[in-house]
Structures are given as C-alpha cells and as structure tokens.
Design goal:
heterotrimer; A alpha+beta (380); B alpha/beta (226); C mainly alpha (117); B: 226 residues; alpha/beta; 6-stranded mixed sheet; 32% helix; 27% strand; globular; C: 117 residues; mainly alpha; 2 domains; 5 helices; 0% strand; elongated
Chain lengths: 380, 226, 117
C-alpha cells in the first residue's frame, strides 16, 4: 500500500512536471474549466435554492383561487359569486381578494397593490406597508418617508408608511404596497362589490379536486388555481430556468469541449515519444495510464472543486449577482434577497459526473495505443 | 548471462513492407564483459540490441536471461525485467525535455515506489559520480551534449541494473567525450556490470575497454572477435 | 536548506495537493455553513410562509416587469396575442417563464350526461 501510494505520487509528480512545461496554456485550461463548472454549479445551486424557497414558502398560499374569465381574459369577479362558493360542502371560508398592478411613471417600476387577506393588519385609510424595493425605486431617504402616487384618475394620493418589509422577505414582498380595502377601491376607482379574485380555504385538502369539480358546475366561466398548481408552476419555472441557463452555458461547454478534446485527446508526436521512452526505461502500460489519469483527474477535479466552491460563495454570499442582469431584465424592482444555503448531494454528484469523468476519460482514450505499443520504437 | 537462440525478427509482418531485420542469430553474452555490436547501418544491430534488452520480442527464436526464457513472457514481466536487469542509454539519449535533470534520472525508479528522499539522494549520488551534481535541478535541455549523455547514463544506473545497454552512445560525441565515455564503461565493468552496445565507431571497438566485438551484416552475425 | 532551494526542489505535487486540499476544505466548509445556517433559515422560511398566509400571496416577486412574470401562477392563459404564452416576448425574463404544459393538449370533456343536463 505504501509503495502503491508512493508510486502514484511519483506518477503525479511526473505528470505535473510535464504539464508545467506549457504553464500558460495549462493554467488557462484550468481557469476556463473552473469558470464553466462555476457557471453550471451556480445555475444548479441557485435554481435548487429558489425551488426550495418557493416550495417551502408558497405551501401556505391560498388553497384555491377562483378567477373570473371573460372572453378568456382575467376579469373582476362580482361579490355575489362568494355566496355560491361558500355553499359548496367542504369549503371553510371564502374571501374576495383585491390586488392589482400599478405602473409608476416616475421611475418606470411596476408595483403590486394589494389588500392583505388577514384582517389583523388592520390598515387604516391612508396607511401602507411597503416592500423593500419600493423605497429603493423611489430613492426614499428616510425610513418613514410617505409614498405619493398618482391614481388613474390623476389624483395625487399620499400614503403614510406604517412599516417596510424586511430584506428577509424581499423575494415575496419587494414590490408590494399593502393598503386598506377602502383605499384600494378609491385608488383604482372600483365599484364596491367586485374583487380581483376569490380565495377559498378548504377544510380537508384531499377534497380540493371534488370541490373544484362542483365549483366548475356553479361557475362555468371561472378558472380555478389550486395550491398544488402554484407549486407546480414554480417547480417547473425553476427547472425551466435551470435548463435555460445550462443551455446558455452549453455554448461555452461546447467550445471548451473542443479545446479540451484538442488538448486531451490530440496526442502529439512528442508525447507519444515520451511514452515510448517511459516504457523503455521500465514503466509498464499501467503506469503510463495511471500517469495520464492523474493528469486528467487533477485538472478536472481541481476545476470542479474550485468552480463549486466559488459558485457557493457566488450564490449564497453574493446573491448570485452575476445572474442578476439576466433575471432583472427590464424590471426596475429586483428583490434584494438572500437564499437559504443549500447543497444537494445528488446535484453535486451529477455535476461531478458531467465535468470530471468525461475529461478524465478523454485524456485516457488516445493514450491507450501509445501505452500498449512496443517500446522499441524509441530505438528507431 | 544473456543468450539468444536462433532468433529472427520481422517488422511489418505479412504486409508489403515486411523487413527481416535479424535472421537466425545465436549469441552468448558473458557476465561482466563489454560487448559491442557493429556493422553498417541497417545491419540489424539495433534490432538485436532491442531484443537483448527486452524492448521487443523476436518473431521466432528464444532469448534467455540468467537461464530463464524471457522472450515469451507477458508484457508485465518484460517490463519488470527491463526495470530490474537493464539500464538503457539511447542514441538520442531520450531524456524528457522540460523536466529537471534529477527528475529525469529518477524516472526509471518511479514505478518501484521508493521513499522519495532516498531516491533523490540516490539520483544525486549518480549525478555527482558523473560530474553533474551541481546541475541536478536544471532543465535537461540546458545541458551540453556530453552532459546530456552523462545524465542518460546516470538514469540508466538509477536502479542498479546489472546490464547497461547503449545504442550508438558516442555517435554525437567528440574524441575527448568518447574517451570519457569509455572510461566510465571501464569503471562500470570493474564494478561487475555487463555492458552491451552498438557502434560503428572504430574508436569504440578498437578500445581496450571492449572485450567482444560482434560484427553484423544484413541481419546476420558474420563474425565475433573476442 | 534555504527556503529558495526548498521551493526549487519541492515536488510538483506538493502545491497541487495543497490546492486540492484547500478547495476540498472549502467545499466542506460550504457544506458546514449550509448545515449550520439551516435552523436560522428555517425560521426565516417559516416566517415568510406565515407572511404568505396572512397576506394571501401566490407568487414570488422575482420578476416584476410584466404580469405574467410577476404572477406566473395567476396569469391568464387564454388571452389571444398579447399574453399568449407563445407570443413574441417583450421582456428578457419572459424567456425564463415556460409556456404552460397543458397548452393545446386539452380535450373537450363533453359527455352525453353533460349534454342532457
């Protein structure tokens, strides 16, 4: 065992000494390799963390939401529908919800105005609770600065800010403006008995399917969104995005693959000759292959480790800052959120398998012939 | 010590460019002697040397080392034999460029897995003996022709192999360095080593350090001068 | 042996193995960090879940530029042209939001019983 270890270290020594001959090229290779792992690992970790976040948090979203559709578009729903839904057996509570969008022409941001479901917020007319993104978009210079907005009717409305949501919940609340129902109706000029949609809470979650079926008969024009629909939307959204990021990275991966294949598989005449020399002076085929395994292994494992560690730091300490421009797009408000640090073992193993193994294998394939050839070629 | 019985070697067997490099060779190499294989180029000296050093197998015939038949051994054992019995000095020296002198010298011992400092000291002592002690950490290509050859000899000696095999060792050396080489060969012989080399250099086969000259032509032995 | 000659005669694997060891420890620390921050994060997530319940939120405020990106789970699916999931995108984040899986795969659930009602 001791001999085996020492032998392996000699082989690794030799392979590194040989790599050091093209220091710039090989350093460049490791750096590019690490960057690719970094991008892939960042996308993986970021998506996994977002999926985890969405999955945990949105598990408490309303069990069932009923939207009115008119000619296929989401319309305000009349309060009279609440009665119909409340009559269905198994329904615990039904509540009209009010929320909508407001385009702030001052800074081009979109806010989400909302009346909280829970009465415990007890918002008085003229009061608002703001998400952290709004103060930033409006350049609020002090904590309790009031919010002035111009309603559709052209009226300037002033809200005193009772509270601002903490950064901790930015991913949920960044663009929220919570106001009272009376303010909401007057701001958007809504008639008294209409709602954006209706939230239905249900006693037994297993009955949702049945209740939706019954509700469909009562309200044939409505669209029903269940909690599991919401969850599914988000799982899919992040899978999709992760796939897209991977696809974006794929171009880089391909370019790297060409570079790596050239580097790893193209066995130069000089290298072939060196292998002949090593064999002639007493290395066997296994030694030569092990030496090449060390080359592929050290480069790819080193790049994997470096890429993964930096990706972790990037995603969880710097809030995936490099992805922000892509995700932010045209939005003015982008939540300043920190994700729960999370490493998925299986994901890491996948990343390892798609980065380390192919490269190591690629270094081995061309070596095989040279390693098994008769060593007397060096005499000729 | 090494004997070849009715040995022939064909290259590119069965193809149009088939070459018979050695034919029906019977040869006995005595222990602790210096033997030179000589002949015009293409006479089969190098092929014969390759078969003696287990670098290649004869197409027909048998090779014995210390009484054991080695020509039929699987590759693994041939490598083992190469490592323990033979030290090689090649015509173009075949040192690995870009790697330091001492690392080159240590290479044949690497698969045996010796303790690092022990091996390094051993390599250093070989280099010192050949007057290269101060250049151990230089890249190999910084050495002059004579120094490179001595580094190659140091490499051949690292495993204390009893047989030194050298292919045209003086082809690239001037008279002074050739003399120096022959002195080293004499020293090695006095330490009990067996030396086999090819050469078409009269300075070699006329030297007093050489015990046997095997003359070859067209893949056959045409005379042995003891 | 001076430091300089020690560096000159160091084995090439020494710095390489040190680098691998450093990054392995780094990865280990990352795992440890994730583990250690779990209780606090779980508290934060629980608080946020509570917030979701109290306000009645349905979506993450990650993309605020358009309603189908701000509330992907609430966006209407049937509007022709403007908000059609397969329409041309105006917003970069739109490419991150997938078209609904059920698109164009629906069936008419009309049976004899339905018609007789």
């Amino acid at each position: 065992m001791k001999h085996w270890l020492r032998r392996q270290r000699y082989l690794a020594d030799f392979t590194l000494a040989a790599l050091a001959r093209r220091r710039v090229k090989n350093t460049g290779l490791i750096v590019i390799y690490s960057i690719i792992v970094f991008v892939l690992a960042s996308a993986m970790m970021f998506s996994a963390a977002l999926r985890h976040e969405a999955g945990t948090v949105l598990a408490k979203s309303p069990e069932l939401i009923v939207q009115q559709l008119v000619m296929g578009r989401h319309e305000m729903i009349p309060g009279s529908e609440i009665e119909k839904l409340a009559g269905i057996r198994g329904v615990a509570a039904v509540k009209g919800r009010l929320w909508g969008y407001f385009y702030d022409s001052v800074n081009g941001a979109n806010y989400t105005f909302m009346v909280p479901d829970d009465d415990s917020y007890d918002l008085q007319p003229g009061e608002a609770i703001l998400g952290e993104g709004i103060g930033k978009a409006r350049d609020f210079t002090w904590d309790t600065a009031p919010l002035f907005v111009t309603s559709l009717a052209g009226k300037m409305v002033k809200f005193t800010v009772r509270e601002t949501f903490a950064d901790d919940s930015a991913l949920l609340t960044a663009d929220l403006v919570l106001i009272s129902e009376a303010d909401f109706r007057s701001f958007f000029d809504l008639p008294p008995d209409v709602y954006t949609d209706i939230g239905v809470s249900i006693r037994n979650e297993r009955e949702i399917g049945t209740i939706v079926q019954k509700a469909q008969l009562v309200m044939p024009n409505a669209r029903f969104v269940t909690r599991s629909d919401i969850e599914r939307t988000y799982q899919r959204l992040f899978d999709w995005r992760e796939g897209l990021m991977t696809a974006l990275a794929a171009a880089g991966v391909l370019a790297f693959a060409i570079f790596a294949a050239e580097k790893a598989s193209g066995l130069s005449a000089e290298e072939a000759r060196e292998i002949g020399i090593l064999k002639a002076i007493g290395w066997d085929t296994g030694d030569v292959i092990a030496m090449k395994l060390w080359e592929g292994g050290l480069i790819s494992f080193g790049a994997f480790l470096a890429g993964t560690v930096f990706a972790y730091i990037h995603v969880f300490s710097f809030q995936a800052g490099l992805f922000e421009p892509i995700l932010k797009g045209w939005a003015v408000i982008y939540p300043d959120f920190a994700l729960a640090p999370y490493i998925d073992g299986l994901q890491l193993a996948t990343l390892f398998a798609i980065t380390v193994i192919p490269y190591t294998a690629a270094t081995l394939v061309p070596i095989w012939r040279a390693a098994t050839a008769d060593p007397d070629q060096v005499m000729r | 010590m090494i004997s070849l019985k009715n040995v022939s070697k064909l290259y590119n067997e069965g193809r149009p460019n088939e070459v018979c490099a050695a034919q029906d060779i019977d040869l006995e190499l005595a222990r602790n002697k210096v033997t030179v294989l000589t002949g015009p180029s293409g006479s089969g000296k190098t092929t014969l040397l390759s078969m003696i050093g287990c670098l290649t197998r004869p197409t027909t015939g048998r090779v014995f080392v210390d009484g054991a038949m080695v020509s039929g051994l699987p590759e693994k054992f041939q490598t083992e034999l190469r490592r323990t019995k033979f030290g090689f000095v090649f015509q173009r020296f075949n040192l690995i460029r870009g790697v330091s002198v001492i690392e080159n010298v240590m290479l044949p011992a690497a698969p045996l897995g010796p303790e690092y400092h022990e091996l390094r000291e051993r390599a250093q002592s070989r280099l010192e003996r050949l007057g290269l002690g101060a250049k151990a950490d230089m890249p190999i290509e910084f050495l002059s022709g004579g120094e490179t050859q001595r580094a190659a000899i140091a490499r051949a000696l690292i495993n204390d192999a009893p047989v030194l095999i050298a292919d045209e060792p003086t082809a690239n050396l001037d008279t002074v360095l050739t003399e120096r080489f022959l002195e080293i060969v004499g020293e090695l012989q006095s330490e009990g080593k067996t030396v086999v080399m090819t050469s078409h250099d009269p300075r070699i086969w006329q030297s007093s350090h050489v015990n046997t000259v095997v003359r070859m032509q067209d893949g056959r032995i045409i005379g042995v001068d003891a | 042996m001076s430091l300089r000659s020690a560096i000159a005669s160091a084995r090439p694997t020494t710095p390489a193995f040190i680098a691998i060891a450093v990054f392995s420890v780094g990865l280990g620390l990352a795992g440890l960090h994730a583990k250690l921050s779990e209780p606090a994060e779980n508290l934060r997530l629980a608080a946020n879940a509570d917030l979701v319940e109290r306000i009645g939120l349905t979506d993450l405020a990650l993309f605020t530029e358009a309603r189908y990106t701000r509330h992907p789970s609430m966006a209407d699916l049937h509007t022709a042209f403007q908000d059609h999931p397969a329409s041309f995108e105006h917003f970069p984040s739109g490419i991150f939001v997938p078209p609904p899986t059920g698109l164009a795969s629906g069936t008419l659930s009309t049976s004899i019983e339905d018609l007789s009602q």
